[in-house]
Amino acid sequence: MKTLIRSSVKPKPVADTWLKRLSTLTVKAVKGSGFERKAELSIVLTGDDEVKKLNRLYRGKNKTTDVLSFPLLEGIVFPTGSKEGVALGDVVISVPQTKRQALANGKTFKAELALLVVHGVLHLLGYDHATLAEEKEMFALQDSLVKKFGA
């Protein structure tokens, strides 16, 4: 899978290879290896200000959040049989918010970041938590994947 990583946080909080592995494993577990080989996505690690700006601009919420996902295929049936790459979209994560949540939840930074990467990628794959039923399905899958990956 092609994964573009951008970090405006210095020093980089985790290795790009770790992020690529986690996002690849998530796509492969949900959609299979055939789809995973064609998939493309980006992960952006940034600060609260950028996330707050994006949250305000795209969701109308003037506050920072932990993770935002920008699916490119929202509402579109995933292409099958295509030999071309499938651009899934972008996952944007606030590193400072991730650190605060890790501390509040008694987790390591890396464990909290893993949860957010999986969560963001699941959104790119069409999962949501707008209803209780969707939330149960998405969070159960998210938790099982994070546990499976040992992240």
Can you tag this structure with a few keywords?
151 residues; four-stranded mixed beta sheet; 52% helix; 4 strands; 19% strand; single chain; alpha/beta
Describe the structure in brief:
With 151 residues, this protein is α/β, with parallel strands linked by helices. The protein has helices at 16-31, 33-38, 48-59, 95-105, 109-124, 132-149, and strands spanning 2-7, 39-46, 67-71, 86-94.
- Shape descriptor: globular
Q: How many strand segments?
A: 4
Report the average pLDDT across residues: 92
- Kindly provide the radius of gyration, computed on alpha-carbon positions and rounded to a whole number of angstroms: 15 Å
Explain this structure to me?
With 151 residues, the protein is an alpha/beta fold. It is 52% helix and 19% strand. The protein has 6 helices and 4 strands; from the N terminus they run βααβαββααα. The chain has helices at 16-31, 33-38, 48-59, 95-105, 109-124, 132-149, and strands at residues 2-7, 39-46, 67-71, 86-94. A 4-stranded mixed β-sheet has the order 1-2-4-3, with helices on both faces. Helix 1 packs across helix 5. The longest helix is centred in the C-terminal third of the chain and has 18 residues, at 132-149. It is globular. The two termini are 19 Å apart. The mean pLDDT is 92.
